[in-house]
Amino acid sequence: MFAAEYIAGYTIFNDFSARDIQGEEMNGRLGPAKGKDFANGLGPYLVPAADIDVLEAPMTARVDGEVWSDGTVDEMYHTFADIVEHVSQSETLFPGDVIGSGTVGEGCGLELGRWLEDGDTVALEIEGIGVLEHTVVA
């Protein structure tokens, strides 16, 4: 079987990271970095892989209604199948496991030189899946 055949569906995954803390952790090669089970949002729906052309689906990240990033999966260097194949080389994958693909578009706040603040509303949207929205509480 090809890796793509193991992908049940697609949803939106928001990985909130405290980049200032993450930077300190990475200097000492300590801390969870991206391998963490907290500060994540998932949803609003799981769309079966057969029901969406995820390569062409427009994706937008907004903060308080302002577009910070947009793009499509087709612009990513690695496909979802590539990511599944790579992860499965060192990890045992089970049905229901979730794998985040990384940032789509122009980048995250760190790459843009922008920081989230208390009260900001972050909305991630993928056409055909929906909108995942969170409010930052510091």
TrEMBL record:
<feature type="domain" description="Fumarylacetoacetase-like C-terminal">
    <location>
        <begin position="3"/>
        <end position="137"/>
    </location>
</feature>
<keyword id="KW-0378">Hydrolase</keyword>
<protein>
    <submittedName>
        <fullName>Fumarylacetoacetate hydrolase</fullName>
    </submittedName>
</protein>
<dbReference type="InterPro" id="IPR011234">
    <property type="entry name" value="Fumarylacetoacetase-like_C"/>
</dbReference>
<dbReference type="Pfam" id="PF01557">
    <property type="entry name" value="FAA_hydrolase"/>
</dbReference>
<dbReference type="GO" id="GO:0016787">
    <property type="term" value="F:hydrolase activity"/>
</dbReference>
<dbReference type="InterPro" id="IPR036663">
    <property type="entry name" value="Fumarylacetoacetase_C_sf"/>
</dbReference>
